Predict the structure.
Amino acid sequence: MTRWQRSVPVYGVPVFTRGFWGLAALIAIGLVLTAYREVVGLGVTVSGMSDPFAWGLWKTFNVMVLTGLGSGGFAVGIAAWIFNNKKLHSVMRVALLTSALAYWTGLIMLGVDVGRPWNFYWVIMPWQWNVNSPLLEIAVCMSLYASVPLLLENLPPLFEYVIYEFPKWRGLAETCEKLMKKVYPFIIGLAYVLPMMHQSSLGALMVLGGSRVNTLWQTPCLPLIYVWAAAFLGYNCVTLCLLLAKLAWKRDLDPVVMAELNKITVYLIYAWTAFRFADILLRGKILHIFTDGYFSILFWVETVLILGSAYVLSTEKGKKLSTMFNAHLLCAVGGMIYRFSPTTLAFSAKANSFYFPAMAEIIVCLAFVGVAGLGYLVAVKKLAILPGTNADWMKMAQYEEKVKPGIQLTGYAPVEH
Amino acid sequence: MALTRREALKNLAKGTLPVLAAGCVSAALPQFAHAEEERLEANPKYRKTDPANALGLLYDATRCVGCKSCMVACSQYNELKPDTRQDGIHQAPPALNYYTKNIIKLWRSEDGSDHSYFKQQCMHCIDPGCMNACMFGGLRKDEETGVVWWYGAKCVGCRYCEIACPFHVPAFQWDGFNPKIVKCELCRTPMQKDPTKKQPGCTKVCPTNAVIYGKRPDLLKEAKKRIAENPGKYYQSKVYGEHDAGGTQVLYLSRVPFDKIGLPDVGEDSIPSGLKYSHIAYKWLALPIALYVGMVAFAGKNFSEHSHHLVEDQKETGLRAQL
């Protein structure tokens, strides 16, 4: 039985694959369209947005949905470091990398989406803040999270890369690593409080949408339900990354850790669903889950995808890898629909108004998803991200030492403490 | 009709249960009752204007003849290009947009037997959703008049004001690299520029006085006078905006239901009051700070344990420890 002991880079495969160039081409087209958008504005040639549907894919999908999916660093991290779930330390690097890529691309997307980004500098002047605005809370907390704790948490694999690949800089990298260890608890504390704040505020955004958000979604508890959804989406994303690594690079899976990830996902979802139903019941809207036509159907699509997947994961069948993969995928889709609904699918803007993204909008949206995908593919091949065993590391070291003469990946003197 | 015991008990329960629930909530969270006021007092820039001085409009849909001269005057006063995109000749915008701060529309019943003109512009809410949504105060209330106006130097162009406004008023300029938010500011700028202008363009030119300008209490008095003088004429004998959305400075009278003329039933709570629970969670940042302190404590303990384990592991395997 495989037991994950340490992170090991994906080795022996080229970085510049066909997939790499495909993504690079998509990104290039996306960047050209982004430049075009900066010149001509957000009008009909670029986006499908209009005054009634003032927010399109770039905010509602790239930010509000994908940072939910990228909440692994926060959701898995809390379990590992706060609730001391030792099994989960081995997957933390995957979680942190997915979070960083989702947040960084999301923030760039925000910059592309807003009309007057040059006025954003007010964010560094707290006396200029409107502290009542949920969006201000997001602007402050999300940029702070992405630029400080999330960045710092992702540095250790880079330090190791420098230590192994550039022996000249080894001293500096080790000093940085030591400094990091001194302040690490303070960093991770921030890395959990900030996402709790801004992921819930993403829900609070739509509270101001009032009755335009269908009553099945609109609730004073929307912030709580929203951040909760981000938590299980984070687990979905991390588990899917691990399963894909098995599929793509034949990385062995640690059944104990996988079972733990599944267990936490299932419990999070059961509690989330119960809370959501309780909220609807207590607001006296329970009949709407049957009587609201399209909205009721949408509600059940979400619920069946999420709850059904959780049920499958909790059974014996869920231990089969293909079933596990499908269940997590469908669950992630359901969770993403939930995060997407209040802004778009369950948002009735105005009579006769309609939103469907323009082609350029979709391409730019996908291009920035592509940036994250490309970053992930390069990172797992260059850095020790994906979990493996000590034996895997030895095999990798043998291979690398043959390919790159002079490099030494084993037998280091222990770092002093 | 005689009141049965069953009904009496039911009514008693209906009356007392919410009170009990509210009592429990406010006992558990003493700040709850005052959260709303404190939120508004916290930052003088966002304080409510004294409604006694607040300026506004009174629009009586029964008097409007749909001549649209107010739309022309609005464009002239605000130096806006008339929106002739519909046919290239007429100023006929389909809705409020970045060329149009004021619009006259026509509602017609499905069988064509009934109709009413109606005017749309900013409602100048007493506690506006748009201003609460805006990150840096790109939308703000004039401290004296309560007019909600757009301040470009603070606007990031996020369009959250459009999400937060239940009346679909703020309009974003979808063309060009330097977009603006366009909305009725009660001709604030034209009147500042030219002191001979004593009232907004729309009220100045209205031939039937369907829309009049003044202080909110005076307008409210006038509206109520019209309702009293014409019993049964006005829908629900109600002034829309007296309490709706927490009260607005623009008031409406109508013969047909308000939702037919673009005035949704938004309840009597202001739009920002929907966030009162969230504001409790952020009060003095107490909860986030407490969470942070607790998390650092747990993380510190677990981290030193984990580091110890890493060092042991490193000695055993000869492979460099990974954080």
Observations:
- Chain B touches chain A through 79 residues (CB under 8 Å).
